[in-house]
Input
Amino acid sequence: MSLPTAVELRDVTKRYNEIVAVNNINLIIHKGEIFALLGPNGSGKSTTLKMLLGLVQPDAGEINVLGINVQEDPVAVKRQVGYVPESPNIYEFLTGIEYLDFIADIYTVPAEEKKQRITEYLKAMDLEGREGDMINSYSDGMKKKISLISAFLHKPKLLILDEPLNALDPRSARIVKDFLQELKAQGVTTILSTHVLEIAEAVCDRIGIMYQGSILALGNMAELRQRASLPSSGLEEIFLKLTGTGDLKAVVEELLK
Ligand SMILES: Nc1ncnc2c1ncn2[C@@H]1O[C@H](COP(=O)(O)OP(=O)(O)OP(=O)(O)O)[C@@H](O)[C@H]1O
Ligand SMILES: [Mg+2]
Output
């Protein structure tokens, strides 16, 4: 039995002049799945996520998100998706509460629900009491939290989170991880990128490892272990082996010279 599809990329390529950021990838993500994209810096994770939202146009291929062709109707996609970019792009001269109010209005969240959700999420993220302060006075982690809350406010069916736990303290990271699991139980699909391998291992159903714009390996932990011929290893060993960054000892020795 095949699971319902949330996202499909077919033969997708994106070039920036000579750089092939994403190189002919094919990928299906199922509804209700938590899926992680892993890969070294510059391997094409953020570019892939941006293409899912129509923020970056592919040079070739087709992308379907929740049954919508992204190139044809990017606005319809954005309506149903919650997105947290790598570096939060928030209006620094609004207060936290003004910003969240503004975003909820863009997504036409009804007034009562808006109030209730904002209060609930601010509390969950330990931001209660700081919502009246200007965002430019927030720490990096606090900005990330506001960005996460703003992505959850309209109850999207799909979450696209680019390094969502960056800058978060362990307690906040745990809250977000638990929240993603809860949303999964409600049928929400999450696609995230991360460098924190422990999170991918603990929270995600499947993992795609990107390298130089291609998906090198794809599957659950057992499948990745098999692919890397490392039957009892954790994700870190698998990642380092598959991405060819295994010879770290030599690199460290070189740095210490
Ligand atoms: N706007 C842009 N203009 C030119 N090149 C770009 C642009 N955005 C990305 N690239 C290039 O595309 C490649 C993939 O970048 P991308 O940001 O997708 O990587 P990433 O896997 O998200 O990396 P990181 O782990 O550092 O976030 C890189 O070589 C990058 O320099
Ligand atoms: Mg990135």
